[in-house]
Write a structure and sequence with these properties.
alpha/beta, Nucleotidyltransferase, domain 5, six-stranded mixed sheet, 6 helices, 6 strands, globular
Length: 183
């Protein structure tokens, strides 16, 4: 019997959170969904975090993913942006961990490399490659959704390989692997 699994990919953000879902049957992946949570109309940062958490829980409860792949924040010049992005990622991770779903983080360069073969590929190049590989008829206006889908596809490509990124199977695993983040 061929094992099936669903992977939820998330590109966290406090402006737009992109996400995509794929179903894996054996060694084949099938596109399920991609979309985004548009948070631009909200000014309250804490409300945005609440909405990210609720939308992630809703996706989990609707699609029952077996694993979550999430894009890790990359260090930029703006510390405030980095902090907000880290919070968005943490809230999405907390939603998955609250449902005991294993989570793996991928750096943006690793995702781009897995999808296009080029760690410096543009969002457009990643989107076009996903369109080709998964047979998507159209691409969304905002490419945050395809970035979320790219995280899921990257995870599929890396499953079975060692050292794919940081993985957490629950709160206990997260605490053990991050003693410096616990006070």
């Amino acid at each position: 019997m061929t094992r099936e699994k669903i992977i939820l990919g998330i590109d966290p953000g406090t402006t737009i959170m992109g996400f995509g879902l794929i179903k894996v049957v054996g060694k084949t992946m099938k596109f399920l969904q991609l979309n985004e949570l548009d948070l631009r109309k909200y000014d309250d940062h804490y409300l945005k975090l609440k909405l990210i958490f609720e939308r992630t829980i809703e996706l989990i409860d609707t699609h029952n993913p077996d694993e979550i792949a999430i894009e890790a924040p990359f260090f930029g010049k703006n510390v405030q942006s980095m902090l907000k992005l880290g919070r968005a990622q943490g809230v999405a991770m907390a939603a998955g961990l609250s449902r005991e779903i294993p989570i793996t983080e991928y750096l943006p360069k690793k995702i781009k490399m897995a999808i296009t073969g080029n760690g410096n590929a543009s969002k457009e190049q990643v989107a076009r490659m996903l369109q080709s590989v998964l047979g998507l008829k159209t691409l969304p206006k905002n490419l945050d959704a395809t970035d979320g889908l790219a995280a899921a596809v990257c995870h599929f490509y890396n499953s079975g390989k060692v050292s794919v990124g940081k993985s957490y199977t629950g709160w206990d695993a997260f605490v053990k692997q991050n003693p410096d983040k616990i006070r």
